[in-house]
Specification:
The complex is a heterotrimer of chains A (291), B (777) and C (162). Chain A has 291 residues and is an alpha+beta fold. Chain A has three domains: 47 residues, 2-Layer Sandwich (Uridine Diphospho-n-acetylenolpyruvylglucosamine Reductase, domain 2); 116 residues, 2-Layer Sandwich (Uridine Diphospho-n-acetylenolpyruvylglucosamine Reductase, domain 3); 113 residues, CO dehydrogenase flavoprotein, C-terminal domain (Enolase-like, domain 1, 2-Layer Sandwich), CATH 3.30.390. Helices cover 34% and strands 25% of the residues of chain A. In chain A, the strands form four sheets. Chain A has a five-stranded antiparallel β-sheet. In chain A, helix 7 packs across helix 8 and helix 11 crosses helix 12. With 777 residues, chain B is α+β, with helices and mostly antiparallel strands. In chain B, strands 5-7-3-14-11-12-13 form a seven-stranded mixed β-sheet, sandwiched between helices. Chain B has a five-stranded mixed β-sheet with strand order 9-17-16-15-10, with helices on both faces. Classes of the chains: A alpha+beta (291), B alpha+beta (777), C alpha+beta (162). Chains B and C meet through helix 1 and helix 17 of B and helix 2, helix 3, helix 4 and helix 5 of C. The complex binds flavin-adenine dinucleotide and FE2/S2 (inorganic) cluster (2 copies). The site of flavin-adenine dinucleotide has 31 residues of chain A, from strand 2, helix 2, helix 7, helix 8 and strand 10.
Amino acid sequence: MKPAPFEYHAPTTIADAAGLLADLGDGAKVLAGGQSLIPMLALRLAVFDHLVDVGRIAELHGIERRGDALWVGAGTTEAAVGASVEVASSVPLLAKATPFVGHFQIRNRGTLGGSIAHADPAAEYPAVALALDASMDVVSSRGSRTIAARDFFDGLWSTSMETDELLAGVSFPIWGGRCGFAVEEFARRYGDFALAGVAVAIELDGDDRVRRSALGLIGMGSTPERAVTTEAQLAGQPVTEVDAEEVGRSAVAGLEAVPSDLHGSADYRRQLGAAMVARAWRTASAEARHG
Amino acid sequence: MTVPTAEGSTRYAGARINRVEDARLLSGRGTFVDDVSLPGMLHACFVRSPLPRATIRSIDTKAALAMPGVHAVFTAADLNPDVNEQWHTSVGPEGPETPRPPLAEGEVRFVGDAVALVVAESRYLAEDAVDLVEVDYDPLPAVVDYTTAEQAATLVHESHGSNLIGQMSGLPASALQEVFDSAAHVVGETIYQQAYVPVPMEGRALAVDYSAPTGELTIYSATQAPHEVRLFCSRLLGVPEQKVRVIARDTGGGFGQKIMVQRDEMCIMLAARKVPGPLKWIEDRRENLIAAGQSRHEHAAVKMAFDAEGTIQAAQIDFVSDCGAYPTPWPVSTSSVVGALFPGPYRVPRASFTTKTMYTNTVGRTAYRGPWQFETLAREMLLDIAARQMGIDPMELRRRNLLRRDELPYTNANGMPFDHISPMETFEQALDMLDYPAFRKEQAEARAAGRYLGVGISNYVEPSSPGFGYYATEAATIRVEPSGKVNVYIAGGSTGNSIETTVVQLAADALGVDIEDVATIQGDTAVTGFGAGAAGSRSASMTAGAIRETAAILRERIKAIAAHKLEAAPEDIELGNSRASVRGTPTIGMSLGELARAAYFDPYSLPPGVPAGLEASARYTADTRFVWVNATHLCTCEVDVATGAVKLLRFIVSEDCGPMINPNVVEGQIAGGVVQGIGGVLYEHLAYDEDGNPITTTFMDYLLPTATEVPVIEYGHIETPSPGPGGYKGVGEGGAIGAPPAVVNAVADALAPFGVTVTRLPLGPTQIHALIAGNRG
Amino acid sequence: MGETTVNVTVNGRSCEAVVEARLTLADFLRETCHLTGTHLGCEHGVCGACTVLVDGAAVRSCLMFAVQAGGTEVTTIEGIAAPDGELSTVQAAFRDCHGLQCGYCTPGFIVSVTAFLEDNPSPTDQEIREALSGNLCRCTGYQGILNAVHQVTGAARGEEPA
Ligand SMILES: Cc1cc2nc3c(=O)[nH]c(=O)nc-3n(C[C@H](O)[C@H](O)[C@H](O)COP(=O)(O)OP(=O)(O)OC[C@H]3O[C@@H](n4cnc5c(N)ncnc54)[C@H](O)[C@@H]3O)c2cc1C
Ligand code: FES
Ligand code: FES
């Protein structure tokens, strides 16, 4: 189980990386932490002529406040995200999601940008990004653009980035006020990709009514999913009158592409998803009410 | 830690001795096959079939051969004609056998079937070349489902004439008909177990160093049985045994998968003589999961008859197993063990069985830790189902039927002669450790609060240390070196079961020497006598026998020399603390080193008739056909009905493996087996899709339990000596036999309020969800 | 195709070689540096047998190319014991608690546990289990391994070893 040969490039600036991607075309692939890409190369499920290692680009690293958002450089490791005091206080949902990402050895190498660019529907970060309406800074030799999370994940392991584009960073809007956050998921074993899960954010107004909420579903479709209908129904409701089980049922009701495989039938995953949403809703709403 | 003996010297058997293997393994200094690197070494990689069944129209190796760094690409035409003989010693040359072409010839019979072998300068290059080998296949319909294979129009092996490999049976079912017809209760179910597999952390591995001038082969092998590798290779290539040396230093687990040479290893042995350097093949994980073998995949219709009090009147099992395309070894006789042992450690006056073994276009069946464990699974699941149907507590039902000590020896209805076992004792000990009444109370309270706890038990009796045929003997050579240090040469085949430590402990005791003075050499056929390796839970009893026989010769010689030198009678000489001294006056004595120096370097000073030197070899022949072992596994769990998750709360094993040579090793073997059993019920499934494609070919899909999934395992020990050497019994396999039904029964008990009957494995969350949903209607 | 010079400091010694870009760090350590204590149990990131420290952080050496490790300090299992062979506290605890049988998974566990306890010297049982969950062992059922980690953390808290 050894990767096929490739040409290795290690640019040290975003501009150089973008230049390489433009020059090398379709045969090139970005290599970040390698925790998803290298297994595929080793199994020869994927073969590329060129790997552009973005691990030596200092500009891709960092966690900083930019206005109402927290910017996380794409090259920031999952371990660094998990250890960041800034992330924990500004974007608690991201902090809460991190321990669910694989195992600590994986998080020492895997990057936030790699996870989001990889766009696994069962991964935590894409669902968090979707739930919080994060925006992706994308760079190519043609210029830069920002892609909203809802436009970013466009299929199984697929994003709206072009092959010559590099994800430079992700901006997570900071939720202020009376907020609560929770991530609940169920995996076959600790650290596995989730069979079903959810990242929930809630903001209450002064009267304990739901000002806004966001439900990012994990592993419930070919992309991370947002339970927009449920969120709309919840808006304005007194939180004490919301039935968490009902939130769960509603959140999974409209899903059309719930996966089914050896580890879980679609039917099972749907029930599981509902249970996870209910659990997360309870936790997040309690946090929002009681701080 | 050691145990003092009456003689005043230390006794190491029975103590929790640190292992002699550990220093090297803990510091990265072990020698596994992949760690062996020889000048000019070449690397092999197989081209494997992507189809479950197809005709091979042609194989084009040109592009691969043209690649720089590639030395050879072999196909069946190159290797298969070189086969001289191929049979496993335990089966014998006359044994019925499945065909075993090294490389697929004409037809591929499962996804993963080896079609060609590439040899290159590195594994990287070999894999590149594999991608360039073009095989033109003509797909054929495949036999995927073993349960319908017998009726299938398609044959896996045309030459066999049927997909039924063979069948065995006990008494005709009609003999039990009357009992079943007249019994107060008859309980029957069909119980199904999915395929799950040994998955040693090191895959199969072989490096063959062939010397053309001498015709000698040195083979580094990841094996449980180095001598069997040597014998097999010698027959395969038609070279005498002396030309083949097998070295197995460290092996990363085996659990049955590494007992016997299979087709892939045959290819490496055959190819090694045709390439210009030593040839290494390291099976990678994907190969291991598609080509190293399957196990466990089986089902049976089982039934038991009870009288009104729940006393078992009769038991019947009709068993069918999936053996894939190329089972190793011939699976028919193993299947009969399932039938013969189905009554278990219970008083079952009448029993019968039938067994069928089926060919399919999937990977061949291989041995896995307790290859017959289905008998325990099916029986213990059925007893719980019966208890529920009859309204008897499952523990009480067992208590009424378990064999008591005063009934031994007891020959079961299929002729199995049980003795020196303690089923009732381990059963009661396990229940005491749990505090069964307290658990039932806790369970009732939990249920009232909407939480689902369950308890499950299983009892088994297992034949260890087979004492017949190829397995019946074991040899040891012991050398007391001139310094007085002791070296013990024994066949070995440890794949983690601590045989080095065991041997050192036993030899130190047998010769009365300090354990630090003893070392052992194992796993090298050039210097050890033939032994059948680590299989059938035989290592403890058989090595103990080999050491007992050999040490007896040396003890006598040491005593004779010491008596002569010390002017005492040999009967008055005591051995202990690496000294020989006169009984009652321990100050009068000589060190073993002094005696050894005399024995080697001053032969004329020895008493008349005593040979020079202090080295001896002897071979032990088993005292009994089987050493019976029994145990009780007891497990509690909580099922989260919202997710289908099973959390194991307590896991208790009370076992009787006789006196323990090293409790750490005993408990380690049990724990390893138990967690494999837990994995088999809750996580692991070697699955194929309907078309015959394997779908669990990586560790992302084939789920082994990790530290977060296992409970603390609690041990209870009953020590009933066997009639064999030291009273020892085997303990390697039992954990994997006893654990699965205990877990299944605990889950089923937790789900009892839903009216669920569990008859199919695995019990992953999706299956538990379906069970509950199915009964909620 | 794609050969590069890499220089990695392995167990305190500089190791420079011209390697193919596709050579994994694991194979670099095993084949180029002849440090065969790092084992391969899956080569796709799940089993943890190949775990090494890269600049002090535990990582899968099968999921990293040697070229990516250029300029780093790598510690393998061979670098965990003292130079005179004296076992580290973690290694000694594995020996005392029967935390290994075949020993194939052991280097990965020792390296992972060493890194974990560095960050969290007084973990709870649940934290220990979670930290171990990225390493697979097929022999021990994890019982001896868990006991070994508890022995180390118990000793750190001044408790009597079990
Ligand atoms: C055993 C194991 C368990 C895991 N469990 C989980 C889990 O439970 N949850 C989870 O979320 N993940 C899990 N992962 C995956 C892990 O989180 C990966 O690290 C992550 O998905 C990919 O990040 P990476 O930096 O390693 O990216 P890489 O593997 O290097 O790249 C992944 C993909 O993203 C692209 N890419 C990376 N960076 C960029 C960029 N800046 N711009 C454009 N494209 C880019 C690459 O080209 C590639 O296609 C697991 C991995 C393993 C091996
Ligand atoms: S070999 Fe690297 S994780 Fe298994
Ligand atoms: S000790 Fe054998 S795999 Fe862990």
